[in-house]
Amino acid sequence: MTHEEFEAHVAMLLRDQPRSTTADLTDFAVAYWDGERVRYVFLHEDGQGALDEEFDLADYLLDQWDADFAIWIAEPHYSSRPELLWWLKAGA
Length: 92
Fold this sequence. Notes:
Layout: H1 3-14, E1 21-23, E2 29-33, E3 38-43, E4 51-55, H2 66-74, E5 78-80, H3 82-89
Antiparallel strand pairs: 1-5, 2-3, 3-4
């Protein structure tokens, strides 16, 4: 699956979710819909699930995370993260 195909699939699923929802792609990265496109964020290393740093998926080799993404596509799971609304307002 290419970056574009994966992103289109994630976008389709996230557009219908509440604004504070993230797609929990891996135990270290999530995605959210910003109203225009999918954005990706690493989670903080402390394991508490806090948003840490935004990244561009195209900067990474998708095959590195292929197994994680395949699991997520087969059974998508999401989190409600009220702090995402604050994070967006703060300009991440």
